[in-house]
C-alpha cells in the first residue's frame, strides 16, 4: 500500500479512470468523476490511508460519485453563441453505422439506468460477487441480483431488436 | 445465444468501454497541483463552522430535532409534449423535459455522458418567420422547410418553423460533428404525443436580480425529479431539484428551516432532506450561502410523477 497520497494517485489513477469510463461510458465524464474523487480523497487521506482497504474505499467513492453525478441540466440551456454565421456547407450523407450484436450491447450499456449499469460493470468488469455488488451499491443481495438481471434482459432485448432488423433487411 | 455466451459479450463490451479511458497523466497532474487551502480560507471555514454549531445548539435548546423539511406545493400545471425524435445518436437517453415559465417553449433533452441533445418547440409570433428567409448564408433543408444552422465544433443548433406560429430548435453539444448531427436530428423530428409534462413547483425568494426561467421533470437513478431553474445576474444560474436519488452529503452542516442539511462549496450545492426526498439547490455564479438557504426555505415544490423517467 503506498504511503503518501501522491504515490496512491500515481499508482491508481489509471485503474480508476478505466473503471469510471466503464461506468460512465464517457471518457470526459470519467475524468471529471475521478478528479473530483481524488481531490476529496486527498483532503481525507490521513483517515483513508489508515483504513484496512484504502483502494476499495476510493473505488467505492468513484461508484458513489458516478451514481450521484449532477448533470448540469441548466448548462444545456446556455444558448449557442450568436456569432457570425459560418458559411453554408452541405450536410454530409448520413453514415450508416456498421452494427452488430456486440455494438448493440456496447451502446445498450450506455443507456442502462445508472444503478443497473453500475451493477453490470461491477459484475463483468470488476468480477464482483452479488454480495460484493450489494455492499458497493448499498442494497440487498437480492436487489443487486435484480439490477444485473434487469440490465441483462434490457441488453438482450436490444440485441434481439437488432436481430429482427437484420432479418427484415 | 446461451447465457454464458451473452455474458461474455457483455464482459467484452464493458471492457471495450473501459479501454476508452483517457491517459491518467493529465488527471494526476491536475490533482497533485491542487494545494491545501490557504490559511485565510481555513480560518473563514472555521468561523462558519463555529457559527453553525452555535446556531444548532440554540435551535436545539428551543425545540427538538427535525429530520426533513416539509415543503408546500402549488397546484400542478400541465403542458402538452407533442413532438419527438425518430433518430438519436447511439447511447443517448432522455434526461429531462422542461417548459419555460411563460409556457411558450417545451424542451426535451437527451444525454450521453456530457453530450447533450435538445429539442425545443416554441409557440411564437408569426412575424418571427422572417428570420428564416430562403437564401440565408447557413441555410439547411429540414424536410422541405428552410432552417438556419449555427455553431462550431463543440455545439450547434438548427432553427426552423413548422408553421407560422410553431418554431423548432435542435441543439447538440459535446459530441462529434455537432453541425452534422443537428441537421440529421432536425430531419428526424416527428409528431410523437407523450403524456403531458406536469409540474408543481415555483420559486419563493430569489436573490436580487435573479429570475425564474424554466421548470420540469428530470430522470435520476432513483426515479423522476422535479426541478426549477433561474438565471442569476451575469452568466450564472440556479437549479433547485427535489430528487429521490440520495445525493452526496459531503460538506458543511447548514440548517434549512431547522433541519440539518449540508453545503458543499466545492460543488456549489446545498442539500437537505425534504418531503421524503432530497432538496438540492445548486448554483453557478455569484450567490451567497444565506441566499441559497433562503431559496431552499421558500421554494414550493412537489415530487414528480412521470412514467418516462422511472
UniProtKB/TrEMBL annotation, chain A:
Pfam families: Sigma70_r2 (PF04542), Sigma70_r4_2 (PF08281). SUPFAM superfamilies: Sigma2 domain of RNA polymerase sigma factors (SSF88946), Sigma3 and sigma4 domains of RNA polymerase sigma factors (SSF88659). GO terms for molecular function: DNA binding; sigma factor activity. Keywords: DNA-binding, Sigma factor, Transcription, Transcription regulation. GO terms for biological process: DNA-templated transcription initiation. Gene3D superfamilies: 1.10.1740.10, Winged helix-like DNA-binding domain superfamily/Winged helix DNA-binding domain (1.10.10.10). Residues 15-74 form the RNA polymerase sigma-70 region domain. InterPro entries: RNA_pol_sigma-70-like, RNA_pol_sigma-70_dom, RNA_pol_sigma-E_actinobac, RNA_pol_sigma70_r2, RNA_pol_sigma70_r4_t2, RNA_pol_sigma_r2, RNA_pol_sigma_r3/r4-like, WH-like_DNA-bd_sf. Residues 109-155 form the RNA polymerase sigma factor 70 region 4 type domain. PANTHER family: ECF RNA POLYMERASE SIGMA FACTOR SIGM, RNA POLYMERASE ECF-TYPE SIGMA FACTO. Belongs to the sigma-70 factor family. ECF subfamily. This is RNA polymerase sigma-70 factor (Sigma-E family). It comes from Actinokineospora auranticolor.
UniProtKB/TrEMBL annotation, chain B:
This is Uncharacterized protein. It comes from the Bacteria. The chain crosses the membrane at residues 39-59. Keywords: Membrane, Transmembrane, Transmembrane helix. Residues 129-148 are annotated as: Disordered.
Amino acid at each position: 500500500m503506498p504511503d503518501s497520497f501522491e504515490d496512491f494517485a500515481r499508482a491508481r489513477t489509471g485503474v480508476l479512470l478505466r473503471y469510471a469510463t466503464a461506468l460512465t461510458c464517457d471518457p470526459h465524464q470519467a475524468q471529471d468523476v475521478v478528479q473530483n474523487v481524488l481531490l476529496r480523497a486527498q483532503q481525507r487521506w490521513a483517515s483513508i490511508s489508515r483504513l484496512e482497504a484504502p483502494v476499495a474505499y476510493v473505488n467505492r467513492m468513484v461508484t458513489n460519485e458516478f451514481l450521484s453525478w449532477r448533470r448540469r441540466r441548466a448548462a444545456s440551456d446556455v444558448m449557442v453563441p450568436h456569432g457570425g454565421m459560418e458559411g453554408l456547407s452541405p450536410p454530409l450523407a448520413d453514415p450508416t453505422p456498421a452494427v452488430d450484436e456486440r455494438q448493440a450491447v456496447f451502446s445498450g450499456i450506455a443507456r442502462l439506468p445508472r444503478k443497473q449499469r453500475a451493477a453490470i460493470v461491477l459484475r463483468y468488469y470488476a468480477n464482483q460477487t452479488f454480495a460484493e455488488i450489494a455492499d458497493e451499491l448499498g442494497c440487498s443481495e437480492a436487489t443487486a441480483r435484480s439490477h444485473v438481471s434487469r440490465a441483462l434482459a434490457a441488453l438482450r432485448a436490444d440485441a434481439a431488436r437488432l436481430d429482427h432488423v437484420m432479418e427484415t433487411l | 445465444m446461451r447465457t454464458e455466451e451473452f455474458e461474455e459479450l457483455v464482459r467484452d463490451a464493458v471492457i471495450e468501454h473501459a479501454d476508452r479511458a483517457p491517459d491518467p497523466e493529465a488527471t494526476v497532474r491536475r490533482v497533485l497541483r491542487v494545494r491545501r487551502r490557504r490559511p485565510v480560507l481555513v480560518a473563514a471555514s472555521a468561523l462558519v463552522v463555529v457559527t453553525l454549531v452555535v446556531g444548532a445548539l440554540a435551535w436545539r435548546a428551543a425545540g427538538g430535532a427535525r429530520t426533513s423539511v416539509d415543503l408546500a406545493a402549488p397546484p400542478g400545471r400541465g403542458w402538452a409534449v407533442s413532438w419527438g425524435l425518430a433518430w438519436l445518436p447511439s447511447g443517448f437517453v432522455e434526461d429531462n423535459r422542461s417548459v419555460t415559465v411563460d409556457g411558450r417553449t417545451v424542451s426535451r433533452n437527451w444525454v450521453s455522458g456530457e453530450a447533450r441533445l435538445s429539442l425545443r418547440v416554441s409557440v411564437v409570433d408569426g412575424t418571427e418567420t422572417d428570420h428564416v428567409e430562403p437564401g440565408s448564408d447557413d441555410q439547411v433543408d429540414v424536410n422541405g422547410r428552410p432552417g438556419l444552422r449555427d455553431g462550431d465544433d463543440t455545439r450547434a443548433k438548427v432553427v426552423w418553423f413548422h408553421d407560422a406560429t410553431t418554431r423548432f430548435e435542435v441543439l447538440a453539444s459535446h459530441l462529434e460533428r455537432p453541425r452534422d448531427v443537428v441537421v440529421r436530428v432536425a430531419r428526424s423530428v416527428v409528431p410523437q404525443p407523450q403524456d403531458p409534462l406536469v409540474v408543481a413547483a415555483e420559486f419563493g425568494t430569489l436573490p436580487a436580480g435573479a429570475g425564474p426561467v424554466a421548470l420540469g421533470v428530470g430522470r435520476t437513478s432513483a426515479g423522476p425529479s422535479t426541478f426549477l431553474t433561474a438565471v442569476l445576474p451575469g452568466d450564472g444560474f440556479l437549479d433547485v431539484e427535489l430528487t429521490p436519488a440520495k445525493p452526496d452529503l459531503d460538506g458543511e452542516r447548514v440548517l434549512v428551516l431547522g433541519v440539518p442539511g449540508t453545503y458543499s462549496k466545492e460543488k456549489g450545492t446545498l442539500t437537505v432532506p425534504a418531503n421524503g426526498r432530497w432538496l438540492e439547490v445548486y448554483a453557478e455564479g455569484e450567490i451567497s450561502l444565506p441566499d441559497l438557504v433562503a431559496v431552499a426555505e421558500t421554494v414550493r415544490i412537489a415530487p414528480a410523477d412521470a412514467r418516462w423517467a422511472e
